[in-house]
Amino acid sequence: MVSTSPLSPHERADYWHHAVSDTFIPLDVTLHEREPSAGTIVSDRLGPLQISVVEAGPQTVRRDKRLIARGGDEYITVTLQHSGTGKLTQDGRQALVGPGTFTCSDAGRPYQREQPGPFRFTAIRVPKQRLGVTDTDLRAVTGTVFGNDRGLAGLVTGYLSRLAEHAAGFDPYTGGQLALTTSDLLALLVRERQGRLDPQAPEAARGMLARIKEYVLRHLADPDLSPHRIAAAHHVSVRYLHKLFQSQGCSVGAWVRRERLERCRRDLARGPAAAPSVSVVAHRWGFANASHFSRAFRAAYDMSPREWQSLARTP
Prior knowledge:
Blueprint: E1 2-3, H1 9-23, E2 28-31, E3 40-46, E4 49-56, E5 59-63, H2 65-68, E6 75-83, E7 86-90, E8 93-97, E9 102-106, E10 111-115, E11 119-127, H3 135-138, E12 145-146, H4 152-166, H5 172-194, H6 203-218, H7 227-233, H8 238-246, H9 252-268, H10 278-284, H11 290-301, H12 305-313
Antiparallel strand pairs: 1-3, 2-5, 3-4, 4-11, 5-10, 6-9, 6-11, 7-8, 7-10, 9-12
Helix pairs in contact: 4-5, 5-6, 7-8, 9-11
């Protein structure tokens, strides 16, 4: 925890500037009070994610080309506002932020966040490589406010709110899995905004596909997950379900298998001290048959699960 409460008002500005940059990425901070209020930052880790609750007085945070050159451009920051209002400016757009909404800022390009009054928010720092999208794709979500509305943005808002509330209570393994889900949901949000969920389809179909994918990601570990079960859970026909995924250029089964295999690949790459067996990993992510898992893994990655595990363990 970082706090300027023990400091005198005239000492707080310099200390806070360094605390913000040390916690997140190189940033320039301007405080707007003659005698700065006390500020606090409480941070936790969920796998590769850093989750920080920030509470402070009015200020403006900027990131310019000079600060980008000092590092940190490999992250995006997802900021969920709890109290107070703010304004995020990036990529030629301005997002007015209020309680219950969130924004995304790309640390690889200049941006500015203004907080005109006292505020409290949760900032989630996410490595961009975890999203599997390009910097150009990310421009679809920067300088934009997302609220607790219907569709994927509403799902993400609710998920981030619960994640921020309980982040400190998760064990390392659970935290790592929640980090995967967070990255997946953010990538879906980027792709939805980018129009990759078939821009020719009606908005309702795009929203339905987003909800179905979120459901599948939450149930990947269930070996009984099937197109019939997925369709029934969303009150649509199996035929319509297949039609939605055809717009992605793949089948329902292929998408589920790809997501399961990617999680197996990540788990098998864990360090020797905590590395689980191949069969345990396969079962954990819904593969009931070890032989089937090995064949699917080899087809996807051109090597067996044991070969990949051995390779990933090699310094």
